[in-house]
Amino acid sequence: MQFGLFAVVVVFLSLMDYTGSNKVMRGRRQRRISTEVTPVCAKGCDLCSEYNGCLKCSPKLFILLERNDIRQIGICLPSCPMGYFGVRNPEMNKCIKCKIENCEACLSRNFCTKCKEGLYLHKGRCYSSCPEGFAAANGTI
């Protein structure tokens, strides 16, 4: 009997401490102070983050955002890779993915310069066969 009463009191006090600590924590955010040193940026990167790579590239370089699960990682490149085209502006030069179906390389969002293998390029678009009234030039696609 005495042990049972003691156990009830311990459980009761534990619950009071738990609910009391929740009230104290509620509405206040714990402030985390980082003791880490600012990350060293890769060559050509002017501003970077430990988790997102480069955030701002040197003036003549392009920033390419690559997906890594739900994160995007920025890298600086002298030119954009296949499947992307470069857009220059005063704030930042960016690599933007081609939006044309079956396009490997493009000049702009809506103008393809190289189609995937086996497709025909005509006026910036990719076709499975040459459009009506046209033939492949010199055996090319």
TrEMBL record:
GO terms for molecular function: heparin binding; signaling receptor binding. One of its GO terms (biological process) is positive regulation of Wnt signaling pathway. GO terms for cellular component: extracellular region. Keywords: Disulfide bond, Glycoprotein, Heparin-binding, Repeat, Secreted, Sensory transduction, Signal, Wnt signaling pathway. It is found in: Secreted. Transmembrane segments: none annotated. SUPFAM superfamilies: Growth factor receptor domain (SSF57184). Residues 1-21 form the signal peptide. Residues 43-140 form the R-spondin Fu-CRD domain. Belongs to the R-spondin family. This is R-spondin-1. It comes from Latimeria menadoensis (Indonesian coelacanth). The lineage of its organism: Eukaryota, Metazoa, Chordata, Craniata, Vertebrata. The gene is rspo1.
